[in-house]
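ingest -> fold -> write
write: protein_1
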Amino acid sequence: MAAELLPAGVHWEAVVVPSYLGDRVLARLGRESGAVICDPYGHRLIWLVPPGTTQGWVVPEATCVQLLSVAQHVTVPPGWCTRSAFTHWVRGWAEHGLTDARLLYVVLDAVILAEHGPREHESGAQR
């Protein structure tokens, strides 16, 4: 069985995080992290979260974090693939399930703050 291109927004949404942030997020989440896909060519980690749970997230454009939901797709490796030069699981779907989206958002926000400093909201006020 090969990797499959699957639609986001049906069984899960995907949070795509560049490796420079994703490695730190994964370390902070530890055992609380659900399934994570590694895309070594894109230098990114991809968390799977329940559908509809990223609505309202605010992530700075400069971080290159992407929220993938309806009408977008993710390359999902086969369940057994944990080490590969291609897309593979860092934490498998079968063993770890979906990540709690609220927890992921809090940790991601803290990592972004540590890496990029305070950010301005649309109103111009700092958080």
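write: protein_2
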Amino acid sequence: MLYDWANSAYSVIISTAIFPLFFKAGADAAGITSVNSTAYLGYTIAVATFILAMLSPILGTIADYDGLKKKFFTFFFVIGVVSTAMLAIVPYDSWLALLVLYTITSIGFAGANVFYDAFLVDVTKEEKMDDLSARGYGWGYIGSAIPFLVCIIIIMLSQMEILPLSMTAASQISFVITAIWWAVFTIPMLRHVRQIHFIKRESKPIIKSFKRLGKTIKDIRHYKSLVLFLLAYFFYIDGVGTIIKMSTAYGSDLGISATSLLLILFLTQVVAAPFAILYGRLANRFTGKRMLYVGIGVYIIVCIYAYFLKTAVDFWILAMLVATSQGGIQALSRSYYAKLIPKDRANEFFGFYNIFGKFAAVMGPLLLAVTAQLTGSSSTGVFSLVLLFIIGGILLAFVPETKEEAGLSG
């Protein structure tokens, strides 16, 4: 759970809050229109997630061998931390260089998460997965709120000229704080978490990993229920991820000040923490599937409300609605899937989980970006995402809740 605490600083400060505002301000200084800079950010997110989507199942299959899960996790973690710190040295108005480096940070962050998610089968029993996964997200929101608050204070004090820093320098300091927080609180994960479920090492592991991956793809027809879940997940998590990553860019297009956006996002983290844990507890009582439907329903309301959004107060309401469900729907998706898959092939199957999730993250930002450019309205772009939640909800209705019903063993 401390890794959720550690890497969530990246999720909010880099993916959601300060970096998008920093990038949009730099793009504006370079003469890029607000609609186009939002679109460029969406295209960049799509490219980064496409790259990782291609790598995830291959790396995951290799990492199922004894001792390799931690090594792959560490490799991507180091890439993410180092590239995040390097954001602080890129010139403010070099918007293209910022997007390139942001792509590398995204690959490091999301790549480490492929293997971190797969560790869920190693650290708890199936009956505790919903609660533990939700607690991880809850800890993550609290852990991200602390460095985020420090960054907000630094930025606000620089705006008030109490600190002798420009807004650019204050934002760059935030990137360094994120990298340090991420690195320090990952140490317990590196020292203490071990891979318990694995495939024994054999000769020519890379070649045999590709053969094993090929066999799984060939036999995918035998995993009908699992494929249905992945398809449902593909659609609804697409909408979730797009709203999270594009929220500050959207708010900026509506004319909401950077300071107001940062305060809104900070309180969103605070509110999201207890709700993520609540989702886990309610899943134990009402089942994870029903709680996933609750989350999907909330996000449909968010998309519809976003279309009519006009003021900062509306954005506050929208943010609080998102806060009630963003952690819960992600946490229960992770644990729902973990309970269906064979434990000794967790990395391989989480590779497929991530390929669906990452390809979804390609489609969502592209849908929002293209719609926004065609209509000239960011609100219409967000509204278009409602279709993804409806399709995801329909597909989820056909998914079983146990490994036995799904026709999987292990």
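write: annotation protein_2
The longest helix spans residues 129-159.
The two ends are 25 Å apart (CA to CA).
pipeline exit 0
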